Amino acid sequence: MRISVVCGTNREGALSRVLATEVAESYRQLGHEIDSLDMAELPPDVLNANAYKEKTPAIQELIDRFLACDGAVFVIPEYNGSYPGILKLFVDMLPFPEGFDSRPCAFIGLAAGQFKSLRAVEHFQQVAGYRNAYIFPRRLFIGDSYSAFIDGKLADDELSERLHDQAAKFTAFISALSGEKS
Ligand SMILES: Cc1cc2nc3c(=O)[nH]c(=O)nc-3n(C[C@H](O)[C@H](O)[C@H](O)COP(=O)(O)O)c2cc1C
Pairing between strand 149-150 and 153-154? Predict the structure, then answer.
């Protein structure tokens, strides 16, 4: 199946991007096709006042890529106790209702602090839920982000294990929803 792994920030040097790369790899190992969709790919004209109405080809391409996925995994950093504004802007570019309606979505939170992006993920889940996404209940939360990676990989083997476990169970969840075999 085709999985979109969404890096929920455009910040240069974001650790969410490092994590999203590891997440994508775990889905590849399970034999799935990955589209790594990074908020840094949003072009500056997404800020134009008429972008809600008229999409430039660059914005439309990102939207089409997202719409083509069987399921989406959102890697969500905690910014000021919530998820980044750029991620909300991307959501606001997606068409209604097909952007989220019946789309399986999984969530991973990453934060420097002790709250491990729980609030950010739950804020984002409220939006995805409002838009009728199929919410995968097994989430993953990672704190102390600045010490969490060694050589671009999660340092904690147990967290890596949970990440792989989430990937296996999320794809089974998508298959169950679609009536396909995984
Ligand atoms: C604008 C901004 C706001 C942030 N706010 C918080 C916060 O409220 N709580 C927290 O634990 N970390 C906060 N951080 C740190 C991020 O959680 C940390 O950088 C983490 O690695 C995930 O973000 P990243 O993918 O940009 O690296 C903030 C970082 C930025 C850039």
Answer: antiparallel
